[in-house]
Amino acid sequence: MALVVLGLLHVGWRILQPGTTAAPQARAEPAEGRVLVEGSDCMRCHGMERRYVGPSFRQIAGRYRERADAAAYLARKIRDGGAGEWGRALMPRHPQITEAQSLQMARWLLALPPAPPAGEGP
């Protein structure tokens, strides 16, 4: 019985330690990024699973996920646009999107699960 009480006290103490409130906020950030993506014009060219004018979000995540600077790199692409990395289509600039917003969008994108291998899917 004493071990159970000690275990519960230990768990309770760990829960109350400073810094434990960061996890829910970190989980909320990708959701905020999705809201920003859906509120922008991103879905005109990018699908979640399918390539339209530009690559799908999962294709983008798959290509850049392993880069150490992936979030910053994609955030810059969102704001500054680009061309030539996914074919000939141009990605327009989005100067109205702040750096913080573009980082949230990029983090949401990078948190997406990988695309299923070709031939598999829903």
TrEMBL record:
<keyword id="KW-0813">Transport</keyword>
<keyword id="KW-0408">Iron</keyword>
<feature type="binding site" description="covalent">
    <location>
        <position position="91"/>
    </location>
    <ligand>
        <name>heme c</name>
    </ligand>
</feature>
<dbReference type="InterPro" id="IPR002324">
    <property type="entry name" value="Cyt_c_ID"/>
</dbReference>
<feature type="binding site" description="covalent">
    <location>
        <position position="42"/>
    </location>
    <ligand>
        <name>heme c</name>
    </ligand>
</feature>
<keyword id="KW-0479">Metal-binding</keyword>
<keyword id="KW-0249">Electron transport</keyword>
<feature type="binding site" description="covalent">
    <location>
        <position position="46"/>
    </location>
    <ligand>
        <name>heme c</name>
    </ligand>
</feature>
<protein>
    <submittedName>
        <fullName>C-type cytochrome</fullName>
    </submittedName>
</protein>
<dbReference type="GO" id="GO:0009055">
    <property type="term" value="F:electron transfer activity"/>
</dbReference>
<keyword id="KW-0349">Heme</keyword>
<dbReference type="GO" id="GO:0005506">
    <property type="term" value="F:iron ion binding"/>
</dbReference>
<dbReference type="InterPro" id="IPR009056">
    <property type="entry name" value="Cyt_c-like_dom"/>
</dbReference>
<dbReference type="InterPro" id="IPR036909">
    <property type="entry name" value="Cyt_c-like_dom_sf"/>
</dbReference>
<dbReference type="Pfam" id="PF00034">
    <property type="entry name" value="Cytochrom_C"/>
</dbReference>
<feature type="domain" description="Cytochrome c">
    <location>
        <begin position="28"/>
        <end position="113"/>
    </location>
</feature>
<dbReference type="GO" id="GO:0020037">
    <property type="term" value="F:heme binding"/>
</dbReference>
